[in-house]
Amino acid sequence: MKILTAAQTRQLDQATMQEQHLTSVELMERAAEALVEWFCQWLDQEQAGEVLVLCGPGNNGGDGLAAARLLHQSGYQMRVALLPAATQAADWQHNRLHLPEAIAVAEINEGQLPEIQPNTVVIDALFGTGLARPLGGLAAALVRHLNAARARVVSVDIPSGLYAEASQPRENVAVRARHTVSFGTPKLAFLLPQNAELVGEWHVKDIGLSEPFIACSTSPWHYTDAAAVAGTLPARPRFSHKGTFGHALLLAGSRGKIGAAVLAANACLRGGVGLLTARVPGCGYDIFQTSVPEAMCLADPAADYLSELPELKPYQAVGIGPGLGQEDASLAVLRQLLEAATAPAAAQQRPLPLVIDADALNLLGRHREPAGATARKHGAHPHPKEFERLTEPARDDYHRLELLRAFAQRYRCLVLLKGAYSCLATPAGELHFNSTGNPGMATGGSGDVLTGLLLALRADARLRPFEAARLGVYAHGRAGDLAAEKPATRV
Ligand SMILES: NC(=O)C1=CN([C@@H]2O[C@H](COP(=O)(O)OP(=O)(O)OC[C@H]3O[C@@H](n4cnc5c(N)ncnc54)[C@H](OP(=O)(O)O)[C@@H]3O)[C@@H](O)[C@H]2O)[C@H](O)CC1
Ligand SMILES: [K+]
């Protein structure tokens, strides 16, 4: 799914109206109906009590007025408060005229901000994608008043005061919503940790916006949902054999961290790799062979860490990093691997795909390796701190995305920045945010599992590098979501 800018969303509205012969009032009605449908599933009339709708002067406020009417018709007890402005949008005026008289309407003023209790349900329809500058004056006072009340707030389209895709100074005021109900496509702002407390849980509702327009729109931002990955996993043909799915090499583990190698190896096998060989330090040999009998194991001559790179010829992909440790000898192995994989080896038909993670990235960052060493057709997947060690400290989440994008473009590699919506940057400058996963996965070992899964998919030559990476990240999160759905079993 594409993520569009506020400006593109406005064009999308126009295109939808033209294509479907709709008036803007009809489109607004669709948005309000989608909001109301969601609202009614969230709270019934009794649970909601009196619902306060705060309306700004634009179409976001118009959505709020239309929703107030529809909720009133569904038996909810409604109250509306209007933010004064010199002019109101035409569709706002239409919906103001059609607001049932039974709904109490008040104009907000500085001396008399609407009464809001902690259990009040508030629909925030002050500002949407038309926000043109930071909130000030009465609007800012109202939003501060609302946030202080700690009420149950639903924001229409986007929390008022929050920009859809641009960074804003921390001192800017914006609504803290419990839920945000948006239309058509998600906003970039929803996917960044710095906005999480404002956006709350977000929901995107389909209001039948123009598919052809969305398909033609260019955007660097994409949201990987089930539809995006559907059909990308090649079938396992009946006459396939283990060679069909590739032979992967995993370089992992150090004393006290052999578990990371075991987790990555198990995930690689679950990911469908044809053959897996792991290179672990001597101390890990017995542990590994006992834990993962399906994999082959090569013991490094050093007991506690990896010190030598094995022959790479047999392998279709190499993963390095889980539990690797920070020894200089292991850095030397990593350097040799990067060199061997990027060298135009005559014997190799394609550059050897690498999956670089965890301690391997820390080693690169600590020694400030020219990051280009990770270049060309390789994949790295750091978490934010590991990433900053490779680049520079980010001012905020938007700046981190810029750094990520620049890094992937400059070094022509796939980079995955791990987090709640892990972001995969491509050499072409696209950013793909993953939709699966949950906070239960924020625990040691999750990254090792991801490395193993990605390694399996990269070893399968039938998958293109980007598709393998996007699918691996999606499947990893989906596995976590399925596990979270299972009822906990007590031992
Ligand atoms: N496809 C869809 O997603 C649909 C969305 N809809 C809704 O429409 C809004 C966008 O509506 P728009 O009228 O463009 O913009 P807003 O309602 O967000 O705000 C515009 C008005 O607010 C004033 N404004 C802007 N910034 C400030 C500020 N910082 N302080 C005070 N006033 C501000 C602006 O005034 P100007 O002086 O800047 O001209 C406007 O008066 C979208 O978010 C959805 O909710 C449609 O309903 C249908 C489909
Ligand atoms: K809003």
Automatic annotation (TrEMBL):
EC number annotated for this UniProt entry: 4.2.1.136, 5.1.99.6
Required co-factor(s) are:
Mg(2+); K(+)
In this protein, which residues make up the domain named YjeF N-terminal? 9-215
What the entry lists under Gene3D superfamilies is as follows:
3.40.1190.20, YjeF N-terminal domain (3.40.50.10260)
On cofactor binding, the record's note says: Binds 1 potassium ion per subunit.
Keyword set, alphabetical order? ATP-binding, Isomerase, Lyase, Metal-binding, Multifunctional enzyme, NAD, NADP, Nucleotide-binding, Potassium
**Reactions catalysed, as given in the entry:** (6S)-NADHX + ADP = AMP + phosphate + NADH + H(+); (6S)-NADPHX + ADP = AMP + phosphate + NADPH + H(+); (6R)-NADPHX = (6S)-NADPHX; (6R)-NADHX = (6S)-NADHX
Do the record's keywords include Lyase? yes
Domain YjeF C-terminal residue range list? 225-491
TM segments? none
- Which positions are annotated as binding (6S)-NADPHX? 59-63, 128-134, 157, 260, 323, 383, 448
Q: Kindly give the InterPro entries that the UniProt entry links to this protein.
A: Carbohydrate_kinase_pred_CS, CARKD, Nnr, Ribokinase-like, YjeF_N_dom, YjeF_N_dom_sf
Residues reported in the UniProt entry to bind K(+): N60, D124, S160
Query: Which residues of the sequence carry a binding annotation for AMP?
Result: K418, G419, A420, Y421, S422, G447
User: What family does this belong to?
Assistant: In the C-terminal section; belongs to the NnrD/CARKD family.
Biological function: Bifunctional enzyme that catalyzes the epimerization of the S- and R-forms of NAD(P)HX and the dehydration of the S-form of NAD(P)HX at the expense of ADP, which is converted to AMP. This allows the repair of both epimers of NAD(P)HX, a damaged form of NAD(P)H that is a result of enzymatic or heat-dependent hydration.
Under the subunit heading, UniProt states: Homotetramer.
Listed name of the protein: Bifunctional NAD(P)H-hydrate repair enzyme
Q: From which source organism is this entry?
A: Hymenobacter humi
Gene name?
A: nnrD
